[in-house]
């Protein structure tokens, strides 16, 4: 279930990452989150109104003015972080590298942690009986996972940003219908 939650709430993590500097990217990520969560009910008038209000705030230069959307970003980002901490490292490795090639050494080191979770590693690293080499190995694994997580969320942000730019350019220069 934790891996499913990672995928479900990923857009909220993207929204949180962009909330300060790329508000429009953040809002689009939240629209994606609501579409994922609501599925067929994505046209729900309450959510639509909240997203529309947030969009109007952006257009007026005030930022995401809808407090419900701002709170939702926070709540769903926390769900993403919880899912991230409780998903098996083997599943996290697949999630983080499904569209990004990493060396066999990195993948092997992470996959070797198997059924452990980030929370398990944090707990295990506190063990006073653990050798210095094992602690360093766990620390490297956490660092690698955090780097790959950041890369994935930034890539998702860039995809959204590129879509915004494309849409803006198409608004500036609409496609001309070909005359026959």
Q: Could you describe the 3D structure shown?
A:
The chain has 180 residues and is mainly α. The chain is 74% helix and 0% strand. It has one domain. It has 8 helices and no strands. The chain starts with a helix and ends in an 8-residue tail after the last helix. The mean pLDDT is 85.
Write the layout of secondary structure elements.
Blueprint: H1 2-18, H2 23-38, H3 45-59, H4 67-86, H5 89-97, H6 104-111, H7 118-124, H8 132-172
Helix pairs in contact: 1-2, 1-4, 1-8, 2-3, 2-8, 5-8
What percent of residues adopt helix (DSSP H or I)?
over 70%
Which structural class do the helices and strands define? Answer: mainly alpha
Low-confidence runs of at least 5 consecutive residues: none
Question: Any idea what the shape is?
Answer: elongated
**N-to-C series of helices and strands:** HHHHHHHH
Number of domains: 1
Note the main attributes of this structure.
180 residues, mainly alpha, 8 helices, 74% helix, 0% strand
In short:
This protein is mostly helical.
């Amino acid at each position: 279930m934790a891996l499913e939650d990672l995928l479900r709430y990923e857009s909220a993590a993207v929204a949180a990452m962009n909330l300060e500097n790329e508000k429009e990217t953040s809002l689009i990520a939240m629209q994606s989150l609501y579409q994922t969560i609501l599925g067929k009910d994505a046209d729900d008038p309450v959510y639509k109104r909240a997203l529309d209000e947030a969009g109007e705030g952006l257009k007026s230069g005030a930022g995401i003015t809808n407090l419900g959307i701002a709170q939702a970003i926070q709540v769903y980002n926390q769900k993403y972080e919880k899912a991230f901490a409780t998903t098996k490292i083997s599943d996290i490795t697949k999630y983080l590298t499904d569209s990004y090639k990493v060396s066999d050494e990195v993948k092997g080191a992470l996959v070797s942690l198997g059924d452990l979770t980030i929370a398990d590693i944090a707990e295990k690293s506190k063990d006073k009986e653990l050798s210095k080499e094992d602690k360093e190995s766990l620390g490297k694994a956490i660092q690698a996972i955090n780097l790959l997580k950041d890369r994935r969320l930034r890539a998702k942000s860039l995809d959204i940003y590129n879509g915004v730019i494309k849409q803006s350019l198409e608004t500036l220069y609409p496609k001309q219908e070909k005359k026959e």
